[in-house]
Amino acid sequence: LSVMPLGLSVVSLSLPWPDIWLRAWGVGTQQFPFESLERVQNDVETVRKLGATVWDGFPEPGSKAEFFAKTGPCHHHLMIRPRKYIYLGYGGKLKVEDLTEQDRLEIAEESRRLAAEAKGLGLGYDKWFMELWDEPGEGNSRLYGELARIIKGADPAIRIYMNPLFWRPGFPPQEVIFDHLKDFYNELIDISVPITNLVGDNLTTQELWSKPRMVQAHYLHPARRAGRGMSWKSFRHGFNGWGYYCYYAPQGNAWDIKTWTSLGYSYQMVFPGPKGAIITPIYETMREGWEDYRLLCALRAAGKQQLLDELLTASGQNQVNWQDLRNRALAAFK
Fold first, then answer.
1. pLDDT of the residue at 249
2. Which residue among 50, 122, 220, 333 is least enclosed by CB atoms within 10 Å?
3. What pLDDT is recorded for position 226?
4. Using CA atoms, how far apart are residues 248 and 25, in angstroms rounded to an integer?
5. Taking the C-alpha atoms of 243, 177, 90 and 54 in order, what is their torsion angle to the nearest 10 degrees?
């Protein structure tokens, strides 16, 4: 029997809990034919450990959204109503010039109704937001802007979300993306979450993504790609959020690989268990990214600006040793 000495260095440090916007799509796992309260509670706790603050739907009595909202900060994600505009917009089946007066009246009326529903649940406008459809691009971004204008006309306080993608496949030149968004993005979009590939030292980041608004964030799809660096990139750009697609959205049975698509595993950071989520290495990567962000906030609060700048510069390189960066940060508090 051999003995290996193990040395530990303990740092006494309470990490801050910054107020950020963090979304993990597909927030809750599923269980058939029913879910125990214990399993739901454990699942919500697992999402919280990622630092997530966004949940789908209003906190209706007895819903997962209600339980999540009771455990900490929560921004409720809603889709445009009537829902037919989700499919018309996403599929590029409707153009700005095709909008009728009836379309405009219908969207305005449903938006006011949604705001009244939120008020009835005790939610201020800062606690919920509206998405029109997923990942706008060249074929539907101008319509997104026009519908956002209609919604804001009905109720200027409604917060509008947009996650620009602009996938062709491949991404178009920055000037093309800017041209599609420049007439409405900074005026109407409150929650800006472009795909991370579009964020950097470029035109759209300078003129769109970095402009002051409620949320400046970016997202990663699929989540298994370099997820730990998302929080560092947010900090470097002065953003207050990020997102991962996704926490749980298996394409098929999560426990049966024969039912997955080629990207099935990319869409689940956890697996459903009888008492809550069963985590994966992908999940641990995301959780460590959230802890890193909190550590960076601690460095900033302690006035360690030189070290902070060095770490942020190192985090933007092609090859990054994340544990080394964390160790350097922790050493400042010994």
1. 87
2. 122
3. 63
4. 7
5. 20
Instruction: Give Cα 44 distance to the centre of its chain.
Output: 16
Q: Is residue 334 scored above 70 in pLDDT?
A: yes
User: For residue 58, how many other CB atoms are within 10 A of its CB?
Assistant: 20
Give the C-alpha distances (Å, rounded to integers) separating 318 from 48, 147, 307, 314, 321. Answer: 30, 39, 20, 9, 10
* DSSP SS3 for 216: strand
Helices within the chain (DSSP H only): 37-48, 64-69, 84-90, 101-120, 141-154, 174-181, 185-188, 203-204, 229-237, 281-301, 305-315, 322-331
Provide the token pair at 184: 């409405």
Give this prediction's pTM: 0.94
One-letter amino acid for residue 332 of the chain: A
22 near 73, Cβ under 8 Å? no
The CA-CA-CA angle for residues 179, 180, 186, to 5°, reads 90
CB 141 within 8 A of CB 164: yes
| HEC secondary structure over 40-77 | HHHHHHHHHCCCCCEEECCCCCCCHHHHHHCCCCCEEE
How do residues 164-217 score in pLDDT, each as one tens digit?
A: 999 999 999 999 999 999 999 999 999 999 999 999 999 999 999 999 999 999
Which pair of tokens denotes residue 32?
């058939």
**What's the mean per-residue pLDDT of the chain?**
94
d(C-alpha 334, C-alpha 326), whole Å: 13
Asked if omega into 212 is within 30° of 0 (cis), the reply is no
CB atoms within 10 A of CB 68: 26
Q: 80-114, pLDDT tens digit by residue?
A: 999 999 999 999 999 999 999 999 999 999 999 99
- Which pair of tokens denotes residue 93? 């089946």
Contact between 195 and 135 under an 8 Å Cβ cutoff? The reply is yes
| Contact by Cβ (8 Å): 251, 264 | yes
CA-based nearest residue to 20, from 290, 315, 308, 220:
290
DSSP secondary structure code for residue 28 in this structure: S
* Range name among 35-44, 59-68, 189-198, 231-240 with the lowest pLDDT average: 35-44
